Amino acid sequence: MKRWLPAFVLLLTGLLVGGFAGHSLLRGQPPPITTPLPKELTSYRDVVKKVLPAVVSIEGKSAATPVKAKQPRKRTPADDQQLPEEFRRFFDEFGQGPFGSDADPAPLMGFGSGFVVDPKGVILTNHHVVDGAGEVVVTLQDGRKFTSKEIKTDPKTDLAIVRVETKETLPYLPLGDSDAMDIGDRVLAVGAPFRLSGTVTSGIVSSKGRNLGMNVYEDFLQTDAAVNPGNSGGPLVNLQGQVIGITSAIKSYSGGWQGIGLAVSSNLAKNVMEQLEKDGVVHRGYLGVQVKNVFGRDLAARLGVPKDGGVLVTQVFDKTPGAKAGLKDGDVITALAGKPIHDMHGLQMSVASLPLGKPVELSIVRDGKPQALQATIEEQPKDYGGKDEPTKNASRNRNQSAVSVDKVGVEVTDLTQAQAERLGFRDATGALVVKVEDDSVAATGGLEQGMLVTKVDRKPVKSAAAFKEAVEKASLEKGVLLQVKSPKGGTSFVLLKAAAPAPK
Questions:
Q1: What would the mean pLDDT of 463-470 be, rounded to a whole number?
Q2: Can you tell me the distance from the alpha carbon of 109 to that of 68, in angstroms, rounded to the nearest whole number?
Q3: Is there a single domain that holds both residue 89 and residue 228?
Q4: What is the pTM of this model?
Q5: Catalytic position from the list 57, 113, 127, 128
Q6: 108-to-102, 250, 445 alpha-carbon distances in Å
Q7: For 443-469, what is the mean pLDDT?
Q8: In a domain, 2, yes or no
């Protein structure tokens, strides 16, 4: 018995191991991958041969004027103080040192890349590459040069087209579908970094839908393909040779490549390019409202907003399409023309892409109830979005008639006419917040001094006493929903809720 027992144990162990190996899910392991992985691409030469002939370098010049020999060059993009420092550095290498003489009577305005999008001579590039230039010199990869003064730009997307006169058919690149690209897809960046024309670098799509506040309208693809000063305006292409982005900037602390390049998506560029070709300007629609994203599941639930999001209307400007449609402060927009709206960027891009003068359905939630409005999109005024409303400082003076609401840690007072005028609360009534206790329920919820509470749980309050009464009756466990106005402008919501008890 003792002689065959070890052999029996060994056989049993082998059966168990073999059995469980055939059922790896029982051990919490995924089944083996049976689909063969794609073979490593050994060369991009076929794509490069297709793309490179259509890529150009662009040098912008102003009108010829006498310049002193030692006077430094002046360049518009790098000197633009409104650009963040890390982006201005992207272009500050050009027009200096060995790249030209300071005595040149035609000062260099900008240098970058571009690519032919129409074989008849239309070139797409960045606005900042040609900004301020009276004319540009376009150089193809085969050495052909064209001089053009026909430049059309759209500063709000940082895009521009240059049209050159030619009787020859130029090589060109088609615009692909940037939405079809996914994170991890391979891409190539082509351009003239540091004036080294015909430079090709490779990488992947690192992220999609980046918005950095550089332009009014943004939809950046992020890539780790190496891009440097001079790449700007050049194409970012997929492995089919289609342009899926226009290289625009880098994110860098040194001014050189650090693995983060940004390209304007081709789908955003396509509409802009077509309008610049046709009309020389871009016509965009607008609603004329100020909005903010709805943050937090609890707040969304109290507002009656779907889980997939929406944007809160904080202010509706007079005589705008939004005002004509009947939008009000405190409404939540959930869909436009049948397309769900998840955030501010989505609303902005949707409105800008809609045809002008045609009514569309605007789905909203008002006081927790879904409604549908009809909005007719109108053309955006030229200066729309270019100026910020001045911030109005809230009064910090304590009012002797302040009412304390200890339940939430706040003091409020009735709004006087003088305060209403000073704080910008036009035709408003409610309870003015004059003090918020540190670490209180009010402070945690986001209530701030200077806010005007107009509703408690969707019911209007017209005085400090009415506010206190409504809050005292409400349940902090369920949450108290406040509709407030801010001296900075606009309507918002604050949810006051008791902290959950700590687990024992």
A1: 89
A2: 17
A3: yes
A4: 0.63
A5: 128
A6: 9, 22, 54
A7: 88
A8: no
Selected catalytic residue, list 158, 224, 329, 414: 158
Evaluate whether 341 touches 294 at the Cβ level (below 8 Å): no
Same domain, 162 and 296: no
Q: State whether 373 and 425 are in the same domain.
A: no
Same domain for 159 and 278, yes or no, is yes
- Average the pLDDT over 97-124 and give the result: 67
User: Which residues, 6 or more positions from 190, have their beta carbon under 8 angstroms from its beta carbon?
Assistant: 48, 51, 52, 55, 113, 115, 198, 199, 200, 234, 235, 237
Same domain assignment for residues 98 and 225: yes
- Clarify whether 342 is annotated catalytic: no
pLDDT tens figures, 392-437: 344 444 444 788 888 888 899 888 777 777 777 777 888 899 888 8
Catalytic residue among 232, 248, 265, 440: 232
Residue 503 domain-assigned? no
CATH number of the domain bearing residue 178:
2.40.10.120
pLDDT at res. 321: 92
Q: Is 475 a catalytic residue?
A: no
Q: Is 158 a catalytic residue?
A: yes
The verdict on 136 and 245 lying in the same domain is: yes
